[in-house]
Design a protein that fits this description.
Blueprint: E1 9-12, E2 19-20, E3 23-24, H1 28-37, E4 41-46, H2 53-61, E5 72-74, H3 75-86, E6 93-97, H4 100-108, E7 112-113, E8 124-127, H5 135-146, E9 150-153, E10 159-162, E11 165-168, H6 170-181, E12 186-187, H7 193-201, E13 210-214, H8 217-227, E14 230-234, H9 241-246, E15 253-255
Helix pairs in contact: 3-4, 5-6
């Protein structure tokens, strides 16, 4: 029996699983087409806060992978949802380090975004991946947190796969701010339970028939272990077989790539 036949529901990471930067991974489109053909349920779940659901839908469309916005959950949307559901945000201010997509999601829930010295008195410091991150931004975040701001991170991925190799991810930025402020961030993205509960809710909480597919042990695979679903690691992202053998986090399946689901 093919692995694709064992499950009804699939939670699929994007970076390192479906594509590397702007290049689709071999047979990624064919895999999604096969899920549709077999009437399987699936969602994409990414820790990358660089785009919103619409942005990722358009990116996938350029690879001829056609899905609706509601098939995509990002750490930026999950972070905004978490803030809205867990804090009184009326009239509150936030200092946000991250892409426009993250800032837009935070604005949507009613938080006021502030910059510069005004941000020293922010109620929240919210951090995602930001290629323009610099010392001044670290300093502002530090002052705000030391003045009592709640410190939230979209994810803790230290690196990010690109064709030229791994580059710094949101986790590297978060870690620098944790170091200077001496405060640990509340992290929303995988492997944390909150974003996984959002994902599982898409399948009416059916864990037994759900598989998560990812390229990271400490996020995707650990997330599956924590929430209690089956896990498959693909070796097209940031982890190789040797690293798997040394890790305490063991996936249920280790696959060369997403194309392995299509083999007999």
């Amino acid at each position: 029996m093919k692995l694709i036949e064992k499950f009804q529901n699939f939670i699929i990471d994007l970076d390192g699983v479906i594509y590397i930067q702007d290049e689709p991974i071999h047979k990624a489109k064919e895999f999604i087409d096969e899920l549709k053909k077999r009437d399987k349920d699936f969602i994409f779940l990414t820790n990358n806060s660089g785009r919103n659901s619409e942005g990722y839908r358009k990116k996938l469309e350029k690879m001829n992978i056609i899905v609706e916005n509601d098939k995509i959950i990002t750490s930026s949307t999950a972070t905004a949802k978490y803030l809205y559901e867990n804090y009184n945000i009326e009239g509150k201010k936030a200092y946000v380090i991250g892409a426009r997509a993250l800032k837009d999601e935070i604005r949507k829930i009613g938080l006021n975004l502030i910059e510069g010295e005004d941000a020293h008195l922010a109620d929240f410091v919210i951090v995602g991946k930001d290629p323009d991150f610099n010392y001044e931004m670290m300093k502002i975040a530090n002052f705000a947190i030391r003045n009592g701001a709640i410190f939230i991170a979209t994810n803790y991925d230290a690196t990010f796969p690109t064709p030229e190799g791994e580059i710094p991810g949101a986790g590297a930025i978060v870690s620098s701010i944790e170091t200077v402020s001496e405060v640990k961030a509340k992290v929303i993205g995988k492997p944390n339970i909150y974003i996984m509960e959002i994902a599982i809710s898409k399948f009416n909480g059916n864990k037994e028939q759900t598989l998560i597919i990812g390229d990271r042990l400490e996020t995707d695979i650990l997330a599956g272990k924590i929430i209690g679903i089956s896990t498959a690691l693909v070796l097209t992202g940031v982890v190789n077989g040797e690293e798997v053998s040394k890790s305490e986090i063991k996936p249920d399946w280790i696959l060369d790539g997403i194309w392995s689901f299509l083999k007999e």
